[in-house]
Give the backbone structure.
Amino acid sequence: SPPPTGAALDATRLNAAAGEPGNWMTHGGTYAEQRFSRLDRINRDNVGRLGLAWTYKLDIDRAVEATPIVVDGVMYTTGPFSIVYALDARNGELLWKYDPGVAKTRARDGCCGPVNRGVAVWKGKVFVGAYDGRLIALDAASGKPVWSVDTLIDANRSYTITGAPRVVKGKVLIGNGGAEFGVRGYITAYDAESGEQAWRFFTVPGDPALPPENEAMARARDTWFGDQYWKLGGGGTVWDSMAYDPELDLLYIGTGNGSLWNRQARSAGKGDNLYLSSIVALRPETGEYVWHYQTTPGDQWDFTATQTITLADLEIDGETRQVLMQAPKNGFFYVLDRRTGELLSAEPYAPVNWADGVDPRTGRPRINQEVADWSKGPRVLVPGPLGAHNWMPMAFSPDTGLAYIPVQEAPALLVPDNEATFKGRGRFQVGSQPVELPEDPAVLAKTVAAYKGRLVAWDPVAQKEVWRQPFPSIWNGGVLATAGGLVFQGNVNGKVAAYGADDGEPLWEAPANTGVVAGPVTYEVDGEQYVTFMAGWGGAFPLAFGGLAANAKVAPEARILTYKLDGTGTLPAPRRVARALPDTLPALTADADTLDRGRDLYNDNCGICHGFSALGGGVIPDLRYLDEQAHQAFPAIVAGLYADKGMPSFAGDLSLEQVEAIHQYLIKRSGDLRRELQSAP
Ligand SMILES: O=C(O)c1cc(C(=O)O)c2c(n1)C(=O)C(=O)c1cc(C(=O)O)[nH]c1-2
Ligand SMILES: [Ca+2]
């Protein structure tokens, strides 16, 4: 018989979630978001016996970023385009599915594809933030919508929701993304029963002609300069992490980068620009500001502080401290006092060139202006905007006292456009010249080799690396730690794996057919422990930097993979992506200047999704492989012919002559590829 679908979660159960390890009741496992489970039936001694219990194929083969919620034997999870699935957690039988019907053309409104990081569950309802900005409450038993609200403040700006809602004290909390598109960040709380708005907290100031919304905004205004910032949005989007401490009654949110990235264009080149790249503590009932800690004052590098916020009690200098930990994009691992926001320590967990360290007295980074201020000219930043750690959740084990971080090395060249103004909706705009990747395969290979990923075990008290597990590329998956002495992680090799939590010893590995980026979970039903990985390749790196993802030999294939001891399930054969260059290409007639213009136009308009310099990552079409029919229809496709497939119209952005220049550049790049393939051994 199917399990009950009551989703009977309330404050009592959620506040004590660590005591119910059979369930995975909120995004990070518990409100502390440690992604640690007390379950230990699967452990170091027997993890080698893990086999597939069940698999479930999701509808759309793109990035899968969701952390499933498991309550009383039912799994609630999401796939691309915010589709919600409820399954029997024992066998993967679908109980119901809900497709919010997000228009495929909305894909253009976000940086990193129509991703979704999962649902929240509370008192018989399941909440999903749809990519188009709706927050939707579903009946947990039937999957039927109960209420839906539009969370967006401005339909003319590219807001999207990619993050998972959380529910605290009967309020559903949701932010949004869009700080690469010119938006103003905020988080909103809605009554879980009715959908009525309870409060909204903006993270950056708005129109200076209007009164500030509250005292926190009044204070923030003094840290912004010039007359551009509010027209450019400002940024500070709350696109992923939150945590909650029920005893202190503090809600913690992570805020994102400046919009535009370029502070010269955004804020006359100065100011801390509160509350960008910050951890902000709020009262969950009112949204009232309590404290903030800014990891990257005046951010100009997409150094979001939206990465996992993890709460723990740590023994520091002989005292038990209530801390908050984060490994944001900027490369430093922060330990804060979570009552006050005081910095306890910060040390680099990856190579960093933008700052020499963090001053323990002021809590501010010692920024290397010479190296870091790219408004003065082209600069190579370490880490680059992909971060030393992106959204893939880290875990913390109170047993080992270690944090487990999917670390990456992804340097980037930034070239300024200091005069940038708002370009309109749906345009990737950060105040830089269009990104280019090397077209020469030999140069490209060197850049690919510089992109390194690893799983790092980090001691947050000593602020030291304890062990590492290297991977051939960046963009490895989120992490789960368990009392079985294990950490679980999927990776760019298209594998799922388990390691010893204290020593990093590889203990188990299985194929996933695809890159795995989401964070795994574990749960127990009828005395059986399960481990679930949401598999599916995509997100920022494979889309925009497909050319650098060459070491990740994985096609996107979206599937839920659930393992148990002695499971005997089989993984279907990998999806074959048939790709062949066309026999003949249209004539390459453009001169060198036109091809240069075509490249810049392509990189500015198309590169963020189809791959910069026409080096696709295999998630959506690599345009060097366009067939003869697509070449014939090229202007019509750019004008919206394939809108139902997710290729929006660019008719309003590009003249026919510009479309032709882009087309000529693609014909050239297709020819480049043919020659490369012919000369390959
Ligand atoms: O500034 C923002 O609003 C924002 C939003 C998102 C998002 O919503 O997914 C990402 C980012 N920034 C970002 O910087 C980033 O590296 C990133 C990676 C991904 C992803 O899903 O792979 N999303 C985002
Ligand atoms: Ca960003």
Observations:
- The chain has eleven helices and 39 strands.
